Amino acid sequence: MGGQKPAWLEALYLQKFFSPCSIHDAAKKNEKNICCLDCCNSICPHCVLSHRSHRLLQIRRYVYHEVVRLEDLEKLMDCSNIQAYTINAAKVLFIKKRPQNRQLKGSANYCTSCDRSLQEPFIHCSLGCKVEFVLKQYYDLSPLLRVCKTLQLGPDFFIPQDIGDDETPHSTVVDSSDEPLSSSSGSSGSDNMSFSCTGFVRKKRSGLYVCGRLANKITEEDMGTSMSRRKRVPHRSPLC
């Protein structure tokens, strides 16, 4: 392979992540946050089923930059001397270089490519900086690359279900909770109602809780049914 970068590494640099997926543009949670290393393309969670037999690398965001888990990237190449950062108890590496002027005094440890201040003993601040350094010094990336035939997403990765807005169940019945509910703000109209639930009213013998302001919408039929369930005044038998 020599001084050429592998195709999957080029995809990490060139593909655009966290943009809406054009294939699933009408679906929710359609941000492209996965890189298919076999197709060398960015995909969204809805595309996973079509690529389930491919090597998939999840892309995350940290301070507005793309990062990958160190555990995943180490299966693909040697990541030594790259400074890692911790997000949600997982160590991650930046994909692209982040240039910075040397402004910190007293720090003698800087990135080999972008002059970013680093902790000892690291000499690269990102994957891109290490790749650039190795190609400039040794003209060959092959000693760093590792054979990886399978790479799956972590067990905590959420794959949303494809449910349209019309199929999403809507209900005014609310589980008992201490927190008030409120709808999202929107334009006023007869079909759009904005309200805040400040309390709950329990319907007798039903076990259901209804939003306080919605309790006014109980029909007369419901009231009649509720009244019919009340016990009548008992009649005593005459004394002999």
From TrEMBL:
Residues 179-193 have a biased composition (Low complexity). It holds the Pfam family PLATZ. Residues 168-193 are annotated as: Disordered. PANTHER family: PLATZ TRANSCRIPTION FACTOR FAMILY PROTEIN, PROTEIN RGF1 INDUCIBLE TRANSCRIPTION FACTOR 1. This is Protein RGF1 INDUCIBLE TRANSCRIPTION FACTOR 1. The lineage of its organism: Eukaryota, Viridiplantae, Streptophyta, Embryophyta, Tracheophyta. The gene is RITF1.
